[in-house]
Amino acid sequence: MSQRTLAALLAVPLVVAMLVAAAFTSLPFATYSPGPTVDVLDQPGGDETIQVRGAKTYRDDGQLRMTTVSLSPYGKRLDLLSLMKAWWSDDDAVYPYDYVHPEDQTAEEDQREGAVSMVTSQDVAIANALTALGYEVEPDLQVAYVVPDSPADGVLEVRDVLERINGRKITSPDMLVRTIQETEPGDVVTLRLERDRQQRTVTVTPREDDDGVMRVGFTPGTGYRYPFDVAVNIDPDIGGPSAGMMFSLGIYDTLTPGSLTGGGVVAGTGTIDPDGNVGPIGGIQQKIAGAERDGAELFLVPSANCDDAEGVDDGSPRLVRVATFDDALEAVQAWAKDHDADLPSCGSDS
Questions:
Q1: Which residues make up the CATH 3.30.230 domain(s) of the chain?
Q2: Residue 208: beta bridge partners?
Q3: How far is Cα 145 from Cα 143, in angstroms, rounded to an integer?
Q4: How far apart are alpha carbons 285 and 91 in whole angstroms?
């Protein structure tokens, strides 16, 4: 046997071992894949997703589906085989790990940010829908998140409206935070708040964190006072602001006679701000794929996401470009009357 043949025979197991090792070695990448979609008009288990007390509601047919993206788990680096599978998939996408899970953000911080964003998006969505229906809404300061096992846990609740601290009117989030941080160790903070339209007074003792800062353990955020009670009951594991537009449409539909979609299945995505502007989101291609999987006939695309959406536009579902809540409302109403109606698409200027 020649030396060359012997070297080749000895090299084969080494190459195979290297390939196997590479295939199962964790790499600094993460994936996006189509997540579940949720019909915001649904009544799972008899409990409405959109809940209203104090106003007449209309429960008709049709679906308005919010869309989600499933991310590879926080802290898990994927192996080459998993990444190759996602790379070749028509619906999945591969991104640098630090793009999906920023290095300076912990899993707990990521979860907290998503929860705050979801609460805020729901409240802004309710305000938009009620304003479009002619109701007046007033902004206020509320609890957007309560840190588990913090002094506030069990004392404060999400959407408590914060009015006074230690007898002083709360004039801004900064004033509230500053007052808490200036508390001496062992001192109690007294908060007057409104919960379920009833006044309450609670006390809580701030705790010093690892940086020596006194904290209670909640995140304040902007909320609104509505003329009647409206709530969106979504799985708490779903976070982020990207369902805001669909929440607004669902609330509008719930408070108006007839089916907004004409009995059809409409899906979409997009943040919404207090002025009704629809903002861009991540994972548009995966959200369109999820909507198609779940039977959507029409998909509402934020105008800023059009370039990426066009790359997967095969006509099912039909993609419609929207920049505002009014755009979305008018598009769904027109489509409900005529599925062939002329609607603004991502490739058009109209």
A1: 34-134+228-337
A2: 214
A3: 6
A4: 7
